[in-house]
Structure formats: C-alpha cells, structure tokens
Write a structure and sequence with these properties.
The complex is a heterotrimer of chains A (about 375), B (about 375) and C (about 300). With about 375 residues, chain A is α/β, with parallel strands linked by helices. Chain A has helices at about 1-15, 15-40, 60-65, 85-90, 115-140, 150-155, 175-185, 190-195, 205-215, 220-245, 255-280, 285-305, 310-315, 325-340, 345-370, and strands at about 50-55, 70, 75, 75-80, 95-100, 105-110, 160-165. Chain C has helices at about 40-50, 70-75, 90-100, 105-120, 135-150, 165-180, 195-200, 215-225, 240-245, 270-280, 295-305; strands at about 5-10, 15-25, 30-35, 55-60, 65, 75-80, 155-160, 185-190, 200-205, 210-215, 225-235, 250-255, 260-265, 285-290. The chains are: A alpha/beta (about 375), B alpha/beta (about 375), C alpha/beta (about 300).
Chain lengths: ~375, ~375, ~300
Amino acid sequence: MLTFFKYRFKSLISEKSLMFWSLLFPIILVSFFYLVFSNIGKENIFDTFNVAIVGNKENQLIKTMDEVKYDDIKTFELQYLTKEDSLNLLNQKKIAGIVEIKNNDEYELIINDNGSKQLILEEFLSNYQQKELLINDVLKNNPELLTTNWLETLTFSKDNVSNKSLSEKSNNEMIISFYTVIALSCFMSSFISANGISTIQANISKQGARLSVSPYHKRKIIIIDFIASLLIIISSVITLLIYMNFILKIEFGNHLGPILIICFVGSLVSTAFGYFLSLLFKKKEGLTIAMIIAMTMSWSFLAGMMGPSIKYIIESNLPFMKYLNPVALITDSFYTLYYYDSFAMCLPYLGALIVMFIVFITGAIMFLRGDQYDSI
Amino acid sequence: MIVFKTYYKVIFRNKMQIFINLFICLFISIFFATSNNEANSFDRSNFKNINVGYVYKDKSIKNTGLVEYLEQTFTLKEISDDDIKINDALFYRSVDYVILINADSYESYQVPNSSAGYIVKNYLNNYLNTYHSYETAKIGGDSKIATLTLKNLKTTTKVINYQSDDNIKIKNMGKFFNMYVYSLLGCVIVAISLVMVTFNNNHVFERTIVSSMNVRKRNLLIYLGHALFGIFTWLLMSIASVVYFKEQSLSIQHLMLLINSFIFVFPVTALAFMISQLIKRYTIIGAVNNVVTLGMSFISGAFIPQALLGGIVIKIASFTPAYWFVLNNDRIIELSSFDFSNLFQPILIQIAFGIAFIAIGLAFAKLKNTTTLK
Amino acid sequence: MVIEVKDLVKRYGDLIALNHFNLTVKEGEILGLLGPNGSGKTTAINCMLSLLKYNKGTIKIFGENMKPTAYDIKEKIGVVMQDVAVMNDLTVYENIDYFCGLYISDKKLRHQYVIEAMNFVSIEEYAKFTPKKLSGGLLRRLNIACGIAHKPSLIFFDEPTVAVDPQSRNNILEGIKKLNEQGATIIYTSHYMEEVEQLCDRIIILDNGKIIAQGTKDELKAMIATSEKITFEIFDINKEIIDKIKLLDNVIDVNCNDIFLVIRFQKAEHNLTTIIDFLKQEQIDFEKIFSEQPTLNDVFLEITGKELRD
C-alpha cells in the first residue's frame, strides 16, 4: 500500500505546471491583498480642499474658515471668486463647494456632490451658526458672562468619546476578503484531485483501465489517492502560511493550531469536491474544470472576496445560505477565530464543513460503484 | 480561414463550460456593482441606514437628550450591556456603531476607518460639546440646557445641492464598468484556454507546425477568434448595462464608458492570447485564471476604489492595462463637459499594452515553432 | 533528388541520436527506414521536417534548404505521425478539413480532397463521428487521411501501422502503394521488416543513429553470408550431432532450441540435400522442414549481432 502511495504521490506532483500555479496563485494573491490592505483607509479625509467664497470676504465666518485647522493641517483653501466663475469650477469638480455670503450676511452652501468634503463643509457652517445661536442665547439669559473669558474657554473640538475595541485588534472588516484568499487556496485542491481521478477511472484513461482490471481494491486506490492529493494541498497551504508569517509578518498569535485545523478541514472538502465533480462529469475534463472554477468563484464572491457588503446582505436576508457555501464557512471560521479569539465558536462552521465533506465523498463513492462502463 | 472556422467549432463544442463561466462572471459583476453602497456613505439622505446601538448605563436628562438627538438622524437600537452581545452585533453588522452611555463618559465600539464611525462620532461630540457649553453658561437646570441644546442643534445651514439622482446612478454605472476587468478577463481567459488546450495538444501542434501555413498568419487568425469572443462578452455586459441603467444609458458618460470598455477588449484578448500559448492541459486553467483575473482585478481598482489603494499597489498596477482602464472610467464619471482630453492617454496606453501582448504572444509562438519539441 | 541530407548530427545531451547521417531520396521512390526502437528513425524524420534542431549537417528538400519557415516546401509535404494527432472536439470530416485547410485555402477544392481522402482510407461512413468513438484501427486511418488529404508529393510515414490489425495494415500498405503510383515520394519508417520488404524500393537500416546498411532488399540480403536458413522439427538430438553439423560444408551456425534445429548456410547449391543426407546417416528422425531465404532481420542480426525486434 505504501508503494502504491509513493507512486500516486509522485504521479500527482509530476504535473509540474499544476503544482507551480497552485503554489504561486495563493502567494501572489495574498501579496497583492497584503499590499492593498496595508494601505487602505490611509486616505486622509482631512486633507486640505478648495472652497470658493462669493460675496463679502470680510465676514467673520470667512476669517474663521481661513484659520481652521485639523491636526495642524489647514482644512479649507479659500478662493474668492464671482458666482459665475465659482459655479464653473464646481461643475468641473475643482472645488468642493461654494459659500455664498448674501447681502444681509446670511450665507448659503452650494454643492453638487455628497462626499466627505461636502459633509465637512456643511457641518462646519452649521456648527458656526449653532455657535452664533449659543452666544445669542447666552446674551439673552446671562449677558454678564460675555464680559468674562468664557468665550475663550469654549471648545467644540473636544473628543468626548473614547474609542474602544472589544478584542484589541483592528477590526478592519476588509480582512474578510483576505481570509477568502486563504479559503480559495484550500480549494485549489479540487483541481489536483480532479486531475488525479482521470488516471484512476477506466472510462477516462488507459492507466485507469489498467488499474480497474487489477485485483487491487478500487476503494483502496481512492483512499490512497485522496490522501496523496490532500498531502499536496496541505503542503501548499502550509507554505502559504509560512510565507504570510515570515515574509509578510502577519501574526497568527496562538491561533496557529486552530488555523491549521480549519485549513485541513477546508482541504478535505475541496479534495472531495474535486472527486465528486470529476466523477459526475466523467470524460468531460473541460466541463469539470469549468464547473470547479465557476463554483469556487461564486462561493468566493458570496463569501466576501470582493468586498464584505455582499456577505452582510446574505447574512441579513438569507442567513442559511452561508451553510451551503464552503468558502464562506472557511472564511467565517477564520474571522470568528480572529474576532472572538475563540476556537469553540468556529465549531458550528467546521461541523457544517465536515457534513459537506461527507456529502461529496459519498457522492463520489456512489459514482465509483459501477465498475463496468457503457463505453470506455 | 479554416483556422478561424475551426476555432469557433471548438468553442461550440465547449459551449456548456464556456456558457457556465460566462454566466457566473456576469452574475458576479452585476451583483457586485449594484450591491455596494459605499459611494453614498457620506450622503445625508442615507444616514437613516446607519444603525447605532446604544447601551444605557445612565439615564440622565443629558443622556436622554443625546439619544433623542441621534434618533432624529440615525436608526437607534438599544442593546444590553453584554460584551458578547455587543461583539455579535458588530460582527454580524446589525449595528455599525455602538455607544456606551455612562454618567459622564462615553465609549464607542466601531469598525475602524469606517465612514459611519466618523459621522456618528461627529454628531455625538457636537451634542456633548454644545450641551457642555450651555452648562458652563449657567443658563438653567439640566432640563433647560437639554432643551436649548436640542433646539440649537436644529439650526443648520441652507444647502443648495445640484447633485441629482442621476449623478448617483452614474457613479454606480462607473462601478459597473469597472467590473469589466473581472468579467472580461474571467470569461475570456477561461473560454480561450479551453479552446487552446485542443490546439496546443502536442501531436496536433506538431502536425500544425509542419504544415505550410505561415505561423504568424495562423496565430493572428487565432487571435481574431479570441477578439471576436471578447467582443461578444463585451456586448453582453453592455446590454446588461443598458437594461439596468435605463435613462442614464443615454448620457455622454455611458457612451464614453462603452467606448473605453470596447478599447479594453483589445489588451484583454491580447493578454489571453499571450497566456494561451502556454496552456496545454485543462488542469492549470483554474489556477492561471485565478492569478491573472483576480490579481489584476484587485490591484487595478475594480473591487476597491483606486483612491484607497496605496502608492506601491498603484505603481505595480500601472504595469497592467486594467489600471488605465479603471482610471479612465473614474475620469469619465467625473466628466462635466465635453472635454475629453484627459481620456486619450489611458486609451493609448491600453492599446499599447494590447500591441505588446500580441507581439510577445507571437514571439512565444515562433519560439515553440522552432525549438526542440521532445 | 527530392531529399538530400548530408552529415546530419543530432545530440540529446551526451546521447548521439544521429551520427553523421546521410540520405538521398529520388523522386517517386519508396524509401524504407528500418531499425530497432531508439535507432534514430523518428529523430531523422523530425529533423527533416524542421521539427527538431540539429547540431550539424544540411537538409535540402526539393533542392532548397529546409527550415521552419520554408512554407513553399512544406506545402508539398505530408506527414503521418507515429502518434495519432487529431482533435478530439472535431468530427472525422472536420479533422481532415482542418488539417487539409492548413495547406489548401480553396474551399471547394478542399471539400473534394477531404472526400477523396476519406474514401482513400475507407472511413467515409464515420464522417460525423468524433475520434473518441473510433477504434484504434479507424483512428490510424483518420491519422493517415489527415496527413495526405492535400495531395502532397512527398509523404513521411512514421510507423503508421503500430497497433493495427492485419487487415487494416494490409489496407494501409496497399493505400501507400497507390499513393506512390499516383506520383508521391514516400519515406516509410518501421521496425516491422515484413512491411518494409513488401513496400519499399530501397531500404536503409539504422542502428544507434548510424546507417549500417542500405540498398534494395536483394542487395541487402546479398550483403550477408547467410543465404539460406533451414529449420527442422526434431525431438531428439544431442550436442555431439550438433557439433558434427557445424563441420559440414557451408554451415555458418547451428542453433537448437526446444524442438527446432535451425541451421544457417552460406550460398551454395544442395544445402538441403546435404543436411538431410547427414541426418539420415546419423539416424536422426525429424518431422517438419522449413527452408527460408534470409530476412532483413537476418541482415540486421549479422551486422549488429542484435535482433531488429528487441
């Protein structure tokens, strides 16, 4: 049995191009992701932006606007223009908005977009008016206060809310996309196992026919082949994890054991899935590969690879769907582990994955039962 | 023309798998482009979609006033003071922000760097700072201060907003066209790889290269096959865009997006042509597709806006045609006049990539033609 | 001269596959390349077709230097490869049409050629079948049709009858003869000497990349000492008798295995009567007698000490 295993293993890894791409793909994608996510969110919404002023620029509001800073960076870059010119610039998106000072010192904000800059402008102006109203209220009720230094003690930039994090980690939800890449790497095993099947089945290849007429029990052959495929993909995933840990310096903390378990279970499912599809579509190798690609891509998308919002849409509308998506189950296992710091909370997902494994492998075995073919 | 004719015969013989792949790519693209709402996250009219969870640890007048103020803008949900429940609420995104309301201090839990976090926090601080100002002014008791604060905060600047619904839909249209990177690459690479397995089979290939058909001619005919398929995929996506965006599809932006995406078909099919020279077996199609399609989609800005990608990523991405395609799409969306001058350079770069890929593909082909085969 | 190969050397690392190989082929000839597996037959053909690079030598076909871009020469060449080279996604008709189409662009003419090719190899009733549904013999016939449909004037057949049943094999050989009668020059490689003997005007025997003998089949047989081989079915013979036989006139060697006594003679008259008389004299009984002319295998055996079919 060991001899057979040795040769099956050798035969699988001799598919050099498959091994190469299976290893390369996760490493490249993870590297890209890493580059993207280590830079995301660094967009500073507090950079200086242009605002046009129409009307009397001696207005106190304008003076305040000119001076306001955030983190020592000037918030507004003011340009004093005519209404026509400023509307032109607004159209060309060269300014975020126009503050028009009317004759009676009232002012309006003119914008044509709803981004962060417009919101900052709007809030600034509203706050200014609110401060004016505050002072009016004080004037009405406690005018002596205005002769003291009370005004100077006023501060509207105090941050009264302290940010906390339940799990002391950056809960950057984009990490979900990152985990789907690891999950997808486990699923590369489907291609490896599908490739292996073609050399076992008599109706697919001559080697398969040779095996079929030998006294070696078919079930033994499948088990050995399964283990060989599994071994290959686990090596590939471990290589990926090593790359992530040592080169990209992503910490796994004390989660290494659980991570390996999740990867192992994921690889089990994907190997069984490859068998299942390959035996379902028999001779049509092209169709098998296309189906594996289609299913894994759909699953990855629904698991949040391209952005987590789809995941939440499914979560709120069709929560059971998650249990039909192995990539989502693997991804959620990782995320749960990361977020809650608890392996126990991953167990429902792992349970569902094992059920899936049983379903696929049972299907595959049933297809194998018929040892005689209509045509080979 | 036999090469071209045979190419399409092989496509039809593989129609099931090509169609499945096409369908999935289109489905993912359309679903993705129409489900994301981050573009509108700073839009005031969407603030009601922000769910804020609060834990009442102290029900003072000040704090009830705070909750009343927040309720006017956001959707508030009271949650129990339980770490696990709070964690769950954020994890499953039933709330975007959680505030713990103590007697005199306030703590928040949020998804960092999210727009919801910034917005809600601003509102919180606005209320608290205004309340504090009235407090220090010693105008009256808690009740009066709360009332004055709420009244004060009702004052807002008059805003004239020229942004129309149209604009928002056009932004979504831009995102939809950005997904062409994923759908075009995904469809074309898988489909043509399936076909090229047949043409690149060792023995068939040998028989082909001993023939009298010029290697360049044969490969260009094969490229023509790829190009036609690419155009067909483009057509399907474009019909989908017209059907989904209805009125906006008559805009100048839509027309320019169609033109830009049509040009993009060229470097995509050329890249597929280059890669397909190397594909001899079905088994590696999946892995190649993943690396090229997903890799390029991520770094080019198809999934995550280019504005959010860091410097290094942009640098690497600029060596791909997809980056220039998405850049142009983003510029088109911002178009306000008929000044198309800044669109030409990315278009020329895309075309240059296409030419380069075809040249490299032909070089591969020539090399295969003359190198030891066994 | 249709083909002129001078001093061809091809190495795979340290292994010399072709060792100063020379070849000339006249128009209208059927040339056989005979040799055991690994002797360099396919390598020689692949070099001539510019599928392989070679280290030394020149190859001229139709008077021009052969290279990968010599498309005008390639137009006149047809190849039937050792391995079946057809596209599994296309039907029989479509396969022949495609490969013929790489040479002939005129649609009408090509259609006619394809029909003729199918008829030639007798697979017309399978025109709509895909290769997966064909038996081994039919696949081989399809393989041939794909190689000759465009009516080339020089055709390379590289072991076309491997794994083919005797009836199909005969059909193939008949077909090749017909092609030659129609004017094609044929290069035929095989390690089945009977085929080569039956078909070829001239034969080249290769071993380890070198030509060890060439000529017509009679010329080759005349090269060797053996001119007759007589086999007896004998049940009882001892070493003493065998040694005595070895001393008889014109005997080259004697072999005894099981029940067969095989004696090879030099060219002489009355070899048969000599040995029969001797056996009678020694009172040795025998059942059957076979007398054979030497085969190409004998030629090969004498020159190299090895069998053609290993």
